[in-house]
Amino acid sequence: MKETSFDLDADIVELTPFVPDQQTGTTAPLAELAFRADAWLPDETLRLRAAFADDCTLEEIATVLGRSRASIATRIYDLGLRRNSRRSWIAWEDEELARCYMHEPTATLAARLGRAVSALYARAQLLGLSEPGSPPYSGWEDAQLRAGYAKGVPVAQIASLIGRPFAGVISRASALGLRHACQPDDWSDAEMARALTLAATGVPYVVIARALASEGFPARNSRSLGQRLRKLGYGRGWGRPWIIEEDELLRHAYATGASLTPLRERLGRSPHSIRWRAEALGLRGTHVRRDGFRQGPFWTAWEEARLRADYGKVPTRGIAKDLGRGVRAVLYHANRLGLVHGFMRAFSAHEDRAIRNAWTHGVSMVDVAQALGRDPAVIGKRAARIGCRFNDPARPSRGPRTRRANRTPVTLQSLLALNAAAAVDANRSIAA
Q1: SS3 at position 393
Q2: Tell me: the pLDDT tens digits for 387-415?
Q3: Buried b / exposed e across 42-71, counting CB within 10 Å, b at 16+?
Q4: Cα 183 from chain centre
Q5: In degrees to the nearest 10, what's the CA dihedral of 248, 292, 345, 238?
């Protein structure tokens, strides 16, 4: 089957002749516009210029003219008026601006003329020096666009032919309701089944599109083919669902201590995908060779015990310095051991009770953080979530706590015993 997608020759300047409609002509009749109540009248514009020249504020001008401040500001911008720059433009400045505006940085030109950059922009707009927007599409351009889409000409070549940007051609085609010949929507069951079969072999999408076209199916481009395959649930790389057989191979590799590199190549998975799936299966930190296949220095039992005890309580840089290792090495090994940073570990019921007791009995948030081995900011957020704001301006009695010097360090046990100690003191006072 002959493919519908082809490349244009260099000497082609037109895909189809454009004949305008003889009945309506190339232009439509002028339509009458209704008068807008908010339109600016010449007298209002003169009064605006006079008030602006007298250095009146926008609020004063709006009050005099009976308009909103935003309307006044917009009109001043359209007229090119600027504060502190009421010096009239002379002919020499206009000639210099017209000569250098498109060839010299605006800031440099503004410094030479002794004016602000915004003043140059406003003057250039009044002189017609600013680059205009894209002109509307003509009938000839629309005709070339329709013919090119119908024949399957690449969009980039259509854009080059009519002198429009690539994104503009796509936007115009969408507005006209056109669909490219290389993206037909009539996918049959046989074509989809054949496309999935070829995709399973791992060949590129371009090769699959050519093979389908040679077998008699509609000619499509690789982008259209890839989009359809992804809608059918097929994906390459990330996003492909894990199957039971892959999970079993991953569990076997962790149980036997085998290298994960051959497994990644066999499954066609990335290292990040392997780590993510291992964590989802609860395998993180269970690999026999936790150091991988490095030759050293290996982590000793003492180093791992130190890491388990301090990770999340002591800054990671401090742990790395004490162990003589890099920060990244400490983070990687903590991840292999399945450790979770202290800032991220969940709060226990005892910790929540300790926070409530500290909030009730006036213990500072910093002391609570040191007792629980957490950051004070984390303690503050957790306290607010359970209804105990240490810095609550509405309750001065529950406000900031002042830490007392030379006292016994606060611990988790001492915080949990605060309610019991308060109950004993209350009973003693009642008995007395």
Answers
A1: coil
A2: 887 765 555 444 445 444 445 778 888 88
A3: eeeeeebeebbeeebebeebbeebebeeeb
A4: 29
A5: -50
What is the separation of C-alpha 208 from the centre of its chain, rounded to a whole number of angstroms?
33
Range of weakest confidence among 42-51, 94-103, 258-267? 258-267
Determine contact, residues 170/206, Cβ cutoff 8 Å: no
Residues in the chain: 432
Phi and psi angles of residue 314, each rounded to the nearest 5 degrees, phi first: -110, 140
C-beta separation of 21 from 143 below 8 A: no
CB 272 within 8 A of CB 279: no
Burial 258-278 (b: 16+ CB within 10 A, else e): eebeebeeebebeeebbbebb
According to DSSP H, which parts of 232-300 are helical?
Answer: 244-256, 261-267, 271-280
Residue 93 corresponds to which tokens in the numbers above?
Answer: 């400045």
What gap in Å lies between CA 209 and CA 229, rounded to an integer? Answer: 12
Say if residue 375's pLDDT is above 50.
yes
The alpha-helical segments, DSSP class H, found in 2-100 are 42-53, 58-65, 69-79, 91-100
Model confidence pLDDT, tens digit, residues 158-201: 888 888 888 889 889 988 988 887 776 677 888 888 888 888 77
Residue with tokens 């039971």: 244
pTM to 2 decimals? 0.32
